[in-house]
């Protein structure tokens, strides 16, 4: 419990620092955004290629697994 409160306090302090927020945005834009955009395109393509009679839960499971694995 004490350790959790220390981590939360440190996270709040870091989140309130403008330099740290700017660095986090830069890292997100350079590293995470391209991957997320590619995964979104893949998901849209999978949805358009889906068989009309396929059960939605089966499609969602297959799509989720492919997006996480690939």
Any overview of this molecule?
- The protein has 70 residues and is mainly α.
- The chain has one domain (2-69).
- Helix content is 86%, strand content 0%.
- The chain has three helices and no strands.
- It is elongated, with a radius of gyration of 19 Å.
- The mean pLDDT is 89.
Task: Break the fold down into its secondary structure elements and pairings.
Elements: H1 2-15, H2 18-49, H3 56-69
Give a concise summary.
The protein is mainly α.
Beta-strand proportion: under 5%
Pattern of helices and strands: HHH
Termini gap: 37 Å
- SS elements, strand count: 0
* Structure annotation, total helices: 3
The low-confidence runs, each spanning 5 or more residues with pLDDT under 50, are none
The structure class reads: mainly alpha
Mean pLDDT: 89
Helix content: over 70%
Q: What is the general shape? A: elongated
**Largest β-sheet summary:** none
* Count of structural domains: 1
Radius of gyration: 19 Å
């Amino acid at each position: 419990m004490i350790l959790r409160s220390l981590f939360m306090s440190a996270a709040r302090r870091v989140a309130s620092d403008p330099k740290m927020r700017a660095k986090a945005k830069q890292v997100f834009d350079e590293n995470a955004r391209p991957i997320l955009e590619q995964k979104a395109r893949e998901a849209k393509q999978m949805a358009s290629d889906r068989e009309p009679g396929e059960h939605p839960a089966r499609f969602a499971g297959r799509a989720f697994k492919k997006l996480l694995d690939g």
